[in-house]
Design a protein that fits this description.
By secondary structure, the chain is of the alpha+beta class. The chain has helices at residues 4-17, 25-34, 56-65, 77-90, 93-105, 219-235, 246-255, 262-289, 297-320, 345-351, 362-373; strands at residues 110-113, 129-133, 136-143, 154-160, 171-177, 183-188, 197-208, 212-213. The longest helix is centred in the C-terminal third of the chain and has 28 residues, at 262-289. The relative contact order is 0.10.
Length: 393
């Protein structure tokens, strides 16, 4: 049985064989993966040991104390939080062996090709087509709001493979090589001035059937695994007390007493308490993951995350007065990371507007929480049994 003591022993062996100070960062991460200490709850041979997720904290604490490098999880968050658990659940053994190690060590960045200009909130209405030609699928269409597409080697992609059945039934899930001919990434400039998101155009892109994930026509079910994990990753981030968006506002309040008013004080107290409730709820959600797959509670957490970020950043701009109207840099650039706390108040205010869109719009998530968490009656859907090709567009 592998317990905390055994994990401590295995971690010590890793550190002895690969001292962080004298080992190349990538070589250390590969050795950690091969030792089963990457994500300990994954199966043996795939970076884990098949033990409870809660024991990961034992490994992380030992490695952190030794100054070992991490895999820069913010840069590869889509791969870690969305692609990996989906590949683990639905991938073939060959796919798991091929993709999980370079994903975890950060050699290959992933992006998500789900949303489309005509099918954002109604994702199942997507129109990107994949047509079978021999051992390949030929894909044509357009995706939008694609984070990290300008950095990614691989993408998780859903496309329509059967237009003659209802929209949820005719979708298949693929792994797309972003370097293949016909894949074009264009920057999508945002209100912040940056192009953190992208448009992706797919023109006669050939994807081998060996890069299909799950059964043909079962892509919607596979995508639900991705989306549930995405919302947990966004809404269930681990933060210290008074961490995240509330931190710079609280710091300004303490350091700038001349900005205080009774009304702002009352509002800040309310948002501080809500932030702490959200933080503790996210911790509980992560503990629930130890027992199994994420549920729809992640949708509720993602809703809370978006609303709080927008309200807190709005309060910060108001607290700072004229200073809050300033903006540091409108330069068009394509960043690798979203840095909420390292930029100024104006950036936080503008960037948080996207929180209610990315990872599922707040309106759609409200329906998910109402129907699948609270058990309320579903909204009438007249297109549920209509073939996709017959839907009005």
């Amino acid at each position: 049985m592998t317990d905390a003591a055994e994990l401590t022993r295995r971690t010590a062996e890793l550190l002895a064989a690969h001292p962080p100070a004298g080992t190349d960062r990538l070589d250390f991460l590969k050795a950690r993966f091969d030792a089963g200490l990457a994500w300990v709850h994954y199966p043996e041979g795939l970076g884990g040991l098949g033990v409870p997720r809660s024991l990961q904290a034992v490994v992380d604490a030992e490695l952190g104390a030794a100054g070992a490098p991490d895999n820069d999880p913010r840069r590869i968050g889509i791969g870690l939080g969305m692609a990996a658990p989906t590949i683990l659940q639905y991938g073939t053994e060959e796919q798991k062996q091929r993709y999980l190690r370079p994903l975890w060590v950060g050699e290959e960045v992933w992006c998500q090709l789900f949303s489309e200009p005509g099918a954002g909130s109604d994702l199942a209405a997507l129109g990107t087509r994949a047509v079978r030609e021999g051992e390949d699928w030929v894909v044509n269409g357009q995706k939008v709001w694609t984070s990290s597409a300008h950095l990614a080697r691989w993408a998780i992609l859903i496309a329509r493979t059967d237009p003659d059945v209802p929209k949820h039934a005719g979708i298949t899930y693929f792994l797309c090589d972003m370097t293949d001919p016909g894949v074009e990434v264009r920057p999508l400039r945002q209100i912040t001035g940056e192009a953190e998101f992208n448009e992706v155009f797919l023109t006669n892109v050939r994807i081998p059937d060996s890069r299909r994930l799950g059964e043909v026509g079962n892509g919607w079910r596979v995508a639900q695994t991705t989306l549930n994990n995405e919302r947990v990753a966004i809404g269930g981030m681990r933060l210290p007390r008074e961490g995240g968006m509330i931190a710079p506002v609280a710091r300004t309040w303490r350091e700038r007493p001349e900005l205080r008013t009774p009304d702002l004080h009352q509002r800040l107290l309310g948002l501080w308490v809500e932030s702490e409730v959200a933080r503790l709820t996210a911790e509980r959600l992560r503990q629930q993951l130890v027992a199994g797959q994420p549920g729809y509670e992640g949708s509720g957490m993602k809703l809370s995350f978006a609303r709080l970020n927008q309200e807190i950043s709005g309060l910060e701009v108001e607290l700072r007065g004229e200073e809050g109207l300033l903006y540091d840099d409108w330069t068009m650039r394509r960043p690798e990371l979203v840095d909420f706390t390292g930029r100024d108040a104006g950036y936080r205010y503008l960037r948080s507007k996207g929180n209610s869109i990315e990872g599922g719009t707040s309106e759609v998530l409200l329906n998910i929480v109402a129907e699948r968490v609270l058990g309320l009656p579903a909204e009438p859907r007249t297109d549920k049994d209509v073939a996709w090709k017959d839907l009005s567009r």
